Amino acid sequence: MGIETLNTEEITIKDIAKVCGVGVSTVSRAINNHPDISPKTKQKIADAIEEYGYIPNNSARNLRRIDGKCIAVVVKGVSNPLFADAVQIMEEEIKKRKYSMVIRYVNFDEQEVDVAIELAKEKKLAGVVFLGGYFVREKKKLQKLRIPFVLSTAGANVDNISAEEYSVFCVDDEKEGYRMTDYLIRLGHKKIAVLSGMPDDASIGKLRLKGYKRALKEHGIAVDEDLILHMKRDIRFYSMENGYQMTQELLTGRKEFTCIFAFSDAMAIGACRAIADAGKKVPDDYSVAGFDGIEMGDYYNPQLTTIKQPIHEIAMESVTMLFEILDKKSENVRRIFSCELLERESTRHRKVL
Amino acid sequence: MGIETLNTEEITIKDIAKVCGVGVSTVSRAINNHPDISPKTKQKIADAIEEYGYIPNNSARNLRRIDGKCIAVVVKGVSNPLFADAVQIMEEEIKKRKYSMVIRYVNFDEQEVDVAIELAKEKKLAGVVFLGGYFVREKKKLQKLRIPFVLSTAGANVDNISAEEYSVFCVDDEKEGYRMTDYLIRLGHKKIAVLSGMPDDASIGKLRLKGYKRALKEHGIAVDEDLILHMKRDIRFYSMENGYQMTQELLTGRKEFTCIFAFSDAMAIGACRAIADAGKKVPDDYSVAGFDGIEMGDYYNPQLTTIKQPIHEIAMESVTMLFEILDKKSENVRRIFSCELLERESTRHRKVL
DNA sequence: ATTGTTTTCTGAAACGTTTCCGGTAACGTT
DNA sequence: AACGTTACCGGAAACGTTTCAGAAAACAAT
Question: Which nucleotides of C are covered by protein (CB under 7 A)?
């Protein structure tokens, strides 16, 4: 059915134009929902596109377009299950708006902003979502990134990320760190070890730690720096493996502790494994608490006590807001999401001696 | 240092050419390691590129290039931890060869081949890796995909994927299904429930099931179809949730069983959770075995007995071979990788009544 | 009929590369 | 000195699309 005289290898916008008896620019306008077009021709073009299975070449589009319809998601930390969820949601939202998404994972020692700048050069991006990055002393670089961006699950109260300068979507890490520590103390724990971030962590890890210390202080418990472990640089950060190693150190050390507060669920799981390998039990011998609220926490044995971040909402809001900024419908905003403390099996009242 | 008279917004190949006093095509040749160029000018150009931080625009390259230096990875099944590992390795290998990678996840009800074809239209791909797909009755479509491709972790013995027609990298699912079942039987289990694939599964699930049945038969155990569960369509397949649901059905049903063989580690973990929620214990009350050998299996409580797929090698080989095919250095090959049965805590000898 | 206004469309110029084809320079050989 | 060969290089044409400036058509108002 229809005109079958097209035997070209790949069918282009020109073919569609020819078939419809219109100019190439008309087809373009039809595709991109530009105003200056009659419903009739628009329909005709739509039909032809359907019939011939035409798909616009993305490279050509992005090359010419004034605003590349592509947004980049730069994720700090590969294979973080929390982010995996977020990325998925973002992808859906981005696709829904007919944008394409490019994702890049960066290690702890890479500068996410640099990565974004490079990406912008080679791709022509409309905007960037930074997921889980650290943005201390990055102001200048962020300015070099001329396109709109949002900071998602970035530390909320870090010195340099202030006020309405940027769009930030995250939880109050200090408060949540406090909340969990307070909970653990109320369970009777006094010697609470912490599996925290990088030694020179300047973002979420630092904030959660601040909350931890505040809680101890408020309860009149001295902070013991020996109980604050920092993760190893050479291992994937916030990973099970990292948690495992730190916990092993803890267990073989001479410092007493009854409880571990890990700054990610993955590390908490690593901790549980290390404890089990040492012939001990969670929560009988040690209580273990995590942070994030990943799906695995539900399934793990014991079920993980944790701070559940509303990652779905954070992801959703982040891209929604990015698009509003792109549409000039909105200014920068900062939204702090509150978390939920899930009391589950991995923590319990401290055993009385 | 250097000529600082370039105040253009974005610096292009023309700028580099101008700065170096050479033609644009010379710069292009220098970048792409084409032969006709003297070491001296090549160096000069390299220096200029370095100095000005020039990054070629990818859209323009892909538009013009005869062979798009991009390979697509089409993954059947989102958020499968096994594939996450594989994807990461592939990305490294692809980047190492100066190619870019585009990844697309497809659901069970989407045709991965169609997705690849569409992708090829909009991107100009050099090749495709299909990860974990099903390729029954897809011969014709695969031919429409004019570019080279490899099938990674696709069912090895499926009827239609025969001989040297395609490049296939996978494990022998029938054999491994047999191996695990045989092991479980030797532990004394006779009533082994199976958490298998989709009802109309035509690939790995079907093959593993075949191995399962063969093992039973060889041991003189009758196959009980009621113990063969198929996963739900409306839930992410091979997921913890799916395993959980199936196990719940099993537990609330009236069929007796002493052991569960799940066709993925994730489903096995779901099974463990369901058993725990029912107040039972693994492996005391039920043995549970998985398939895949994901990292989580090491950390889970109990540690999962499973069939460990050499996913790193599979991923590595898959892209290595794809590149060899691209370079015309190699014909299609089929490599079957053998797995390792990890005997761990989630299985044990059947309790005597 | 003329003019103005709005709607719809078109041709051509970009976008930044790669690739083709041919040209010049350098060198060796007679 | 003339020629052939090789090694480098440059100009310009693509690639397939969007965008821009303005043309044509359609309609309305005088």
Answer: 7-12, 14-20, 22
What pLDDT is attached to residue A163? Answer: 53
Q: Which residues pair with B195 in a beta bridge?
A: B229, B262
- The enclosing H or E element of A131 equals strand A127-131
The nearest CA of chain A is from the CA of B225 a distance in Å of 28
User: What would the pLDDT profile of A183-206 be if each residue is shown by its tens digit?
Assistant: 999 999 999 999 998 887 777 888
Instruction: Provide the residue count of chain A.
Output: 353
Kind of pairing, strands B228-229 and B259-262? unpaired
**pLDDT value of position B6:** 37
Q: Which residues contact B224 (CB under 8 A, 6 or more apart)?
A: B191, B255
Q: Cα–Cα–Cα angle for B197, B202, B207, nearest 5°?
A: 70
Handedness of CA A123, A124, A126, A130 (dihedral sign): positive
Give buried/exposed letters for B246-260 (b at 16+ CB in 10 A, else e). bbbebbeeeeebbbb
In chain A, what residues touch B264 (CB-CB under 8 Å)?
Answer: none
Residue A243 has pLDDT above 80, yes or no: yes
In tens, the pLDDT along B26-42 reads: 999 999 999 889 999 99
CA A39 to C1' C2 (Å) is: 31
List the nucleotides on chain D closer than 7 A to a protein CB: 7-12, 14-22
Spatial separation of the C-alpha atoms in residues A200 and B59, rounded to whole Å: 38
User: pLDDT band for position A224 (50/70/90)?
Assistant: very high
| % helix, strand, coil for chain A, step of 5 | 45, 15, 40
Q: What CA–CA distance (Å, rounded) separates A176 from A291?
A: 9
Q: List, in sequence order, the alpha helices (H) in A6-80.
A: 13-20, 24-31, 39-52, 58-64
**pLDDT single digits (tens) A295-306:** 999 999 999 999
Chain A partners within 8 Å of B270 (Cβ): 299
Assigned token pair, B62: 């892909």
Strand order in the sheet with A334-337: A100-106, A70-76, A127-131, A149-152, A167-171, A334-337
Across the interface, which of A59, A124, A240 has its CB nearest the CB of B63?
A59
Q: Whole-number mean pLDDT of chain B? A: 89
Amino acid at B12: T
Whether CB of A46 is under 7 Å from strand D: the answer is: no
DSSP label at B163? G
All residue ranges of chain B with pLDDT < 70 are 1-9, 79, 136-137, 156-164, 351-353
Structure tokens, B325: 């095919």
What is the rounded distance in angstroms from the CA atom of residue A248 to the CA atom of residue A221? Answer: 24
Under 8 Å between Cβ of A257 and A263: no
Residue A77 has which token pair?
């930390």
B107 in contact with A, Cβ within 8 Å:
no
